[in-house]
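Review this today:
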Amino acid sequence: MSTAKEVYDHLNGYLTKFPNTKASDWYAGIATDARDRLFNAHQVNEQNDAWAYATADSNAIAREVEGAYHDAGYDGGPGGGDNATRAVYVYLKTRSTKQ
């Protein structure tokens, strides 16, 4: 589990591996089960696509981090998940991914 800063640091550390992308190339969201959301709902390819997630200490922290990414221009929308949702995820959108 992680604080907001730890979640930001983990995800931002991964995102720096893709310096030629812009915020709007990415999708940011929250989920109770990030892997299910990424690989089933969004159809991210686990082996070939760019993705990352981190688990926050609370639902409020997860929503705060998600909102910060949306404010920074990442695609996605607020209001997903439930009170147990703590995972924050990002993925690079491709032709095969679904928002």
